[in-house]
Amino acid sequence: MEGYIHSTESFGTVDGPGIRFVVFTQGCPMRCLYCHNPDTWELNTGNKMTTKEILEAYDENKSFYKEGGLTVTGGEPLMQMDFVTELFATAKEKGIHTCLDTSGITFSREEKALEKMNRLMVVTDLVMLDIKHIDPQEHIKLTQQKNDRILDFLAYLDEIGKEVWIRHVVVPTITQNDDYLYQLGYYIGQFHNIKALDILPYHTMGINKYKSLGMEYPLEGIPALDKSEAIQARKVVLKGYKDRKSELKKEGQ
């Protein structure tokens, strides 16, 4: 099977545990204001690669991936779910750790869609879930999409016991807000499958990409988030998370 691939990275260190081979798929329905790869948005473009070709590229440096594995990100990899499922199934046959980095925006509990998702999850070791904004209306402003499918996807992952790393980008004037950050932590505190929390500081490295594509940068003038501010934001999220856990413990859940 062939997939539309934007690019690959041989030595990814922020895309799951260990050193990883990272595949960036093409196509995404989200229009995040801080997206630094708008060239991944369009569907059915990019380089066509087969699952065999990707795993051959993986094998070129496989000795470096002993504590890592294969991550598929995007764009939005769930836009090409059949391809990712075949890739991960073949990878698992080779004993490769598989990680899906997704927004979960395409999730559906419709019967056929859920059957496909179940097949993918059987061959997925870890899901890195990007929650863009916890507030429904603010999420629409930020991404042009609702967040209900994303939050339902997290609930589904908890139901099936799939390990999840939560990722959240903190942007000055948008998500750098203690109320929203606490709400995020409080919400995810109800689940039992969350193994890590990555709070990512907004950066401005995408500006040059937009200029090269002849596009106006949506967040012009908003400064990058300082690392110390990201650390503080993480503390707020964790406060909400722990408060929810404490409440559930008292309720015997």
Task: Please characterize this protein's 3D structure.
- The protein has 253 residues and is α/β, with parallel strands linked by helices.
- The protein has helices at 51-59, 81-93, 111-122, 136-143, 148-160, 178-188, 207-212, 227-250, and strands at residues 2-12, 20-25, 47-50, 69-73, 98-102, 126-130, 164-170, 194-201.
- It has an 8-stranded mixed β-sheet with strand order 3-1-2-4-5-6-7-8.
- Helix 1 (51-59) crosses helix 2 and helix 6 (178-188) crosses helix 8 (227-250).
- It is globular and about 50 Å long.
- The relative contact order is 0.13.
Helix content: 25-40%
Rg of Cα set: 18 Å
Which whole number gives the mean pLDDT? 97
CA-to-CA gap between the ends? 44 Å
Strand content: 15-25%
Secondary structure: elements and pairs:
Layout lengths: L1 E11 L7 E6 L21 E4 H9 L9 E5 L7 H13 L4 E5 L8 H12 L3 E5 L5 H8 L4 H13 L3 E7 L7 H11 L5 E8 L5 H6 L14 H24 L3
Parallel strand pairs: 2-4, 4-5, 5-6, 6-7, 7-8
Antiparallel strand pairs: 1-2, 1-3
Helix pairs in contact: 1-2, 2-3, 6-8
Task: Write out key terms for the chains shown.
253 residues, eight-stranded mixed sheet, 8 helices, 8 strands, alpha/beta, 38% helix
Concise account of the structure shown:
Helix content is 38%, strand content 20%. It is of the alpha/beta class and 253 residues long. The chain is globular and about 50 Å long.
